[in-house]
Amino acid sequence: MKTLMQKILYGVISGVMFIIIPFIALIALIARLFKIDIYAFDPMKQRKPIATYVVSRWMGNSGKAQHNRTFSLFLMPSLSAFSLFVMFTFFHGIFLSMTNWDGLNTGKEIFVGLSNYMSMFRDYGFVYSLYKTIIYSVLNIFAINIVAFFLAILVTQNLKLKNLYRAGFFLPNLIGGLVLGYIWQFIFNRAITSLGGSFATSLLVNGDSALLGLIIVITWQYAGYIMMIYIAALQNVPQDLVEASKIDGANAYQRLRTVILPLVAQAFTVSMFLTLVTSFKQYDTVISLTNGGPGTLLPQWITSWFGLAARPAVGSNNLIALNIYQEAFARYQLGVGQAKAIVFFVFLLAVSLLQVYYNKRKEVEL
């Protein structure tokens, strides 16, 4: 039986090897791409190593150093809570991802190394969930941002009751995802199908259309929130430039493309990052709307990749967050579930950094 300190040690060592070192390498790569200097500068503009710079700012007798030490004392309570409830659990989770823990025999788990990580890539259900999540996220990001941007343009015009429209568009964001899924399940399965004709079949009975239904629901919920970001950006666009473009004969589309879009590019970076993270983490609405279904056959390319004789049935909307939950709490394979969660975290971190980097480059081009 391993003691708690041994578990923490395993977690820290594993975290340094498989999380911290790759993360530092990724940050170094980004610093190289953005040409960020690893040296700091003192007030006299003299170049010196960042370690010396940090020591002088925190350990010296200057007023700035004393202020920093006082600030650190006020920071300690929050930092202690963060270390206990976030960092400790994070490293302990890394340790658990390398055990056969089933959630019941706590303290009797066996260290299995990287076998949980290797087994997940032999799990066609996990690969399919990742594939489906990527498709859903790409479509969802475009749908939410396009709808939100045009809603923002609409409510920044000289309209009567435009504040009421803003509140109405934002209101769905206040409804919990679980409740929202049940509401829209009733709409898709009961209200719309009662119209008959082309609407007699619910969107949720077919795999592809169920994904479309999920995108509709999340867009309806989240577009109002993203709209507020675009409203703030649009209101900061200098009206002098817009009026000047009108005088030059630019039509509405030309003003949008050449004047407005370049000035709100930073809002697109923030909004796309938020929608990316939200889409990849989608769980509660999936549970209540489709519960990962309806069932469908595994795509042929995944079947061939795993060398399966037949195409097994899978949940067509079993996104990766739901797959992790099922692995951990339905099959009681918490070690494997934790390993999947860590891989998901690293994957989402890498995708988010690449997305922000790409959008920042587009901001410069615009």
What does it look like?
- With 366 residues, the protein is mainly alpha-helical.
- It is 70% helix and 3% strand.
- The protein is built from 15 helices and four strands.
- It has helices spanning 4-34, 50-59, 63-96, 115-120, 124-155, 162-170, 177-191, 207-235, 239-247, 252-263, 265-280, 284-289, 300-305, 320-330, 334-365; strands spanning 40-41, 47-48, 295-297, 313-315.
- Helix 2 packs across helix 3 and helix 5 packs antiparallel against helix 11 (265-280).
- The chain is globular.
- The N and C termini lie far apart (60 Å).
- Residues 36-46 have low confidence and may be disordered.
Task: Detail the topology: elements first, then pairings.
Blueprint: H1 4-34, E1 40-41, E2 47-48, H2 50-59, H3 63-96, H4 115-120, H5 124-155, H6 162-170, H7 177-191, H8 207-235, H9 239-247, H10 252-263, H11 265-280, H12 284-289, E3 295-297, H13 300-305, E4 313-315, H14 320-330, H15 334-365
Antiparallel strand pairs: 1-2, 3-4
Largest sheet: 2 strands, antiparallel
- At CATH's second level, what is the architecture of the largest domain? Orthogonal Bundle
| Mean pLDDT reading | 82
From the spread of the alpha carbons, the general shape counts as globular
Rg value? 25 Å
Question: What is the strand content?
Answer: under 5%
Strand order of the largest sheet: 1-2
- Tell me roughly what share of residues is in helical segments: over 70%
Helix and strand run = HEEHHHHHHHHHHHEHEHH
Terminal CA distance: 60 Å
Number of self-contained structural domains: 2
The top level CATH class name of the largest domain: Mainly Alpha
Structural class: mainly alpha
Number of strands: 4
Q: Ranges with pLDDT <50 over ≥5 residues? A: 36-46
Counting DSSP H or I runs of 4 or more residues, the number of helices is 15
- The CATH topology of the largest domain is given as MetI-like fold
CATH superfamily of the largest domain: MetI-like
